[in-house]
Amino acid sequence: MKTVSVRKADTSDIPTIQAIANATWPVAYGDILSQEQMSYMLDMMYSTASLEKQMQQNIQFFMAELDNQLIGFAAVGREPMEGMYKLHKLYVLPDIQKSGAGKALLAAVTEYAKSNSGEQLVLQVNRHNAAVAFYQKLGFQIHYEADFDIGNGYQMNDYVMGKAI
């Protein structure tokens, strides 16, 4: 069985992060969001300028690799509340999901947060996204539902989930 490796990302990984986001979003959100909203959100969150800004604002990105191919990424950052970290992103290429990459990325994020005095990891996930079950399986609990205005008349209809780490 092949092992997924995870490493910290840097700005040289931005094109790969963008390619993975563009490959995963239509599968993850195609039945949930309109094409217009997906395009808006991908540009808002994954443009080169946006990713560079996130990395400069101490959002730590991680890359997952299997067989010398980058197959996924995650991003985590400290929240204002003491001891709290937020998983901002976690995506694995659709044809490689269930390879252990998501778990490996989440383990790296958790270890990073713990090593920086993190005590709780929170995330937002679309209420209709199959990833809700993935997070629940890994110990996250739904704290509440929330709708977030993201501009251009769009909202994110999410669960806010969390777990102690």
For this entry, give a set of tags.
36% helix, 7-stranded mixed beta sheet, 165 residues, 5 helices, Aminopeptidase, alpha+beta
Quick summary:
The protein is of the alpha+beta class and 165 residues long.
What does this entry look like structurally?
The chain is of the alpha+beta class. It has a single domain (5-164), classed as Gcn5-related N-acetyltransferase (GNAT) (Aminopeptidase). The chain is 36% helix and 36% strand. It has five helices and seven strands. Strands 1-2-3-4-5-7-6 form a seven-stranded mixed β-sheet, with helices on both faces. α2 packs across α3 (48-56). The mean pLDDT is 95.
CATH structural fold name = Aminopeptidase
How much helix, percentage-wise, in residues? 25-40%
For the record, the CATH class is Alpha Beta
Biggest sheet descriptor: 7 strands, mixed
Record the strand order, biggest sheet. Answer: 1-2-3-4-5-7-6
* Average pLDDT figure: 95
Say which CATH homologous superfamily is assigned: Gcn5-related N-acetyltransferase (GNAT)
Q: How many domain units?
A: 1
Straight-line distance between termini: 28 Å
Shape assignment: globular
Q: Unreliable stretches, pLDDT < 50, 5 or more residues?
A: none
Strand content: 35-45%
What Rg do the Cα atoms give?
15 Å
Could you say which structural class the secondary elements and strand pairing correspond to?
alpha+beta
Can you count the helices? 5
Order of helices and strands: EHHHEEEHEHEE
Number of strands: 7
CATH A-level architecture = 3-Layer(aba) Sandwich
